[in-house]
Amino acid sequence: LDEHKKIKSLSKGNKQKVAIIQAFMHEPKVLILDEPSSGLDPILQNEFYHLLAEVKHRGGTVFFSSHVLSEVQKVCDRVAVIKDGELVSIETISELRNKNIFRIELTYSGKGPTENDFGKDNIENFETSANNLIRFTYKGEINSLLAILNQFDLTNLTISEPSIEDIFLAYYN
């Protein structure tokens, strides 16, 4: 950074760097950050995550607001979900992951499952595409899911852990 330039003349990324330097330079015990890595390149984002880890290691607290859910997953111990201005949930990342939410991808031959086969409260983001491919997020017991799928001639089935984004969307839908 050119120390003689006025902040208002800096690029978004450089303004963000100055703000981060200001936030961390006095080794605060509490930080409140809103979209703090916006405008940073991947190398600087990584360095920023190390700075957050140092605050945590010193016993500090960071309130971190971000719409980049992979970033939340990377840096946060606990997550608060706010919907329509109301606090819906405060949980650890591992508690969120244990919500019986699964990302499903399957292919079938013959007649395939439809949204109605799973119950409308149990699925989100049901997508069908060519080659008898179906993708969706399932909320519920895995044994119930397998019992439903057992009625169809599946040629491939992938059940994966949902991303934080899948879990977040399950709260909002």
Kindly summarize this structure in a few lines.
This protein is of the alpha+beta class and 173 residues long. It contains six helices and eight strands; from the N terminus they run H-E-H-E-H-E-E-H-E-E-E-H-E-H. It comes from candidate division WS6 bacterium OLB21.
Strand content: 25-35%
3D shape: elongated
CATH topology of the largest domain: the name is VC0802-like
CATH architectural label of the largest domain = 2-Layer Sandwich
Distance between the termini: 44 Å
Which residues sit in consecutive blocks of at least 5 with pLDDT less than 50?
A: none
Identify the CATH class of the largest domain.
Alpha Beta
| Helix/strand order, N-terminal first | HEHEHEEHEEEHEH
Please give the share of residues in helix: 25-40%
CA radius of gyration is: 22 Å
Oligomer: single chain
Physical arrangement of strands within the biggest beta sheet: 6-7-5-8
Count structural domains: 2
Reported for the largest beta sheet, the result is: 4 strands, antiparallel
**Name of the CATH homologous superfamily of the largest domain:** VC0802-like
Total helices: the number is: 6
The structure class reads: alpha+beta
Count of distinct strands: 8
Average predicted confidence as pLDDT = 87
Keywords: ATP-binding, Hydrolase, Nucleotide-binding, Transport
Enzyme class: hydrolase
Pfam family, one: AAA_21
Domain ATPase AAA-type core: 9-67
